[in-house]
Amino acid sequence: MNNIKAMRLRYKNTNSMVSKILTAVNDAISKEDDKIFFVFGANNFGESIIEYLKDTDKQIFGIVDNKVEYQGNKFCGLPVESPENFLLPFNDNFRIFIQSQYYEEMISQLKDMGYIEDKHIIKTINLAKNDKTISSEILELYGKSIKRGFNIYNQIITDQNEMLFIVPLLPNGDMYILCSYLEEYLEKNSINKATITVLTNTLVKIVELFFPLGNDKLRVIKVSEEDSDDLCALAFLFPRKIEILQPHFRDLNLINYDGYKGISFLDHYKKLIFGLDGNTKPFHPPFNQDATKVDEFFEKYSLRQGKTILLAPYANSIFPFKTNIWEKIAERLKKLGYDVVTNSSSESEPPVQGTLGVFFEFKNMVPILNKCKAMISFRSGFCELAASAKCIKIFICPDIMVQHMSVKDFHSDEEYFNGALEYIVTKENEDYVIEEIIKEIHGD
C-alpha cells in the first residue's frame, strides 16, 4: 500500500477535498473483499478515485451518471451508463462511491433501487455540505489558527499600507496564469506595494519572471503549508488587507461550476479573483533574453536550432492516461530527421524512449523554445509557461470532463496560448492524432 499512501499525500498537498475522498475510499476498500465497485458521477473527483484504485487489487467496473449526454460514452477509459442500466437488478455485492453536491438526491435514487447507505453506498464527501459542520472543537482550532496567522502576518508586513496576497496552491500553471493578470489588478486597485506568499521555490521563480528581484511593487516570500493555512484563516477576517488568490480556496462550491455556461479556467482568475474585464489581455514576461544561454543549451545537448522537437509528457494536477503515443511520435519525428528530446527535470520524469532528456531553467524556457521547431506537451502547467513561445505548440489532452466541460475546452484559450493546437487523445483516435501532429510539424 506504499504507492497508495504516497498518492494520498500527493493529493493532500494539491487539494484537501481529494485527500478526504481518497482516505474514505481507502477505508472502504480495506473492509471489502470480492465486491464490484462503481463511481456515481463522471467528474474530477470520480477520476481521482479511478486512478487511485489502479494501484490496488480493486477496480471500478463503470461510471453511473444521470446526464444523458454522458451515457454510452467513456470516462477515464470506463463505460458511463445510467444508474438503472448498471445497478438494476439489485446486486448485494455492488458498492457505489458518491462525491457530489447532489449527494442527497443520489442517495434517494439508490435507496429506491434497494441499496443501503453505509453498506452499498459509500459516501466519500458531501460537497453540498462540505466543511459546514460547526463544533466547539472546530471553533477552538480555527481560533488558534487565526492567532498564529496574525503573528505570521506581523512578521511579514511592517508597512500598514502594504497588501498581502496568499497563494495556497501548488500547480505551476495556476501560478503563471495568476501572475499574468496580477499587474493589471494592482493598477486597477491602486495597490502600490504588496507581498505574495507561495509554497515552493519553483513558484517563487515563476513570480520573479513577472516581478523581478528588486522591483518596488511586489515581493515574493516562500512559506510553509501550515503558515499559509493560518494566513488564510486570518484573511477571512481582514479581506481588505489580505487576499487569497485561489478561487476554490475561497469557496469550495465554485468547483461545481467549472465549465458551467462556458466558465473557463482563465475566467476563474481573470473575472472571479481579479474582477477584470473579459477583454483584459494577459501579460507574458520577457524571460531571459540572453542569447548565449540559448546557444549554450543547444551546444550542451548537441541539438540543432530549428530542428529540435521538445516533448513534455508529464503532469501533476491532471492524471496522464496510459498510452505509448509519446514513443510513437518520437519514433516518427526521428525518422524524419528531427532531434527529439524530453523535458526531464528529475528521475521521476525519465526521457521518452528513444529521446534525450534535457533540462533548462524557467527563465530560459521561452527563448529556447523559440529556437525549437515545436513542442508537444501533455496538458499541464508546462503549457502555461510556454504560452508565449513562437514555435509550433501542440497540447495533448485526456478525454475527461470537469464539471460541465471537457478538460480541453476548460483550459483552452486561443489568444492566451498564441495559436497552440490542442488534441483530445483516446485509444481509438491515437493514430489519427499522431498523423495530424506530423502534418503540422513536417507537412504532408
For the largest sheet, list the strands in their spatial order. 3-4-2-1-5-6
Q: What is the CATH topology classification name of the largest domain?
A: Rossmann fold
Task: Count every beta strand, where a strand is a DSSP E run of 2 or more residues.
Answer: 16
Radius of gyration: 23 Å
Task: Give the overall pLDDT as a whole number.
Answer: 85
Tally the helices.
Answer: 17
Largest sheet: 6 strands, mixed
Which structural category fits the helices and strands?
alpha/beta
Query: Low-confidence spans: pLDDT under 50, at least 5 residues?
Result: 1-15
Quick summary of this structure?
The chain has 444 residues and is α/β, with parallel strands linked by helices. Helix content is 40%, strand content 17%.
Would you give an account of this structure?
This protein has three domains: 2-126, 3-Layer(aba) Sandwich (Rossmann fold), CATH 3.40.50; 136-273, Rossmann fold, CATH 3.40.50; 291-442, Glycogen Phosphorylase B (Rossmann fold). The chain has helices spanning 2-14, 16-29, 44-53, 83-87, 103-112, 136-156, 172-188, 201-210, 225-235, 247-250, 265-273, 291-300, 325-335, 362-370, 381-385, 407-411, 430-442, and strands at 36-40, 60-64, 74-75, 78-81, 94-100, 121-126, 163-166, 194-198, 218-222, 242-244, 308-312, 339-343, 356-358, 374-378, 392-398, 421-425. The model is unreliable at 1-15 (pLDDT under 50). It is built from 17 helices and 16 strands. It is of the alpha/beta class and 444 residues long. Helix 8 links the parallel strand 8 and strand 9. 40% of the residues lie in helices and 17% in strands. The strands form three sheets. It has a six-stranded mixed sheet with strand order 3-4-2-1-5-6, with helices on both faces.
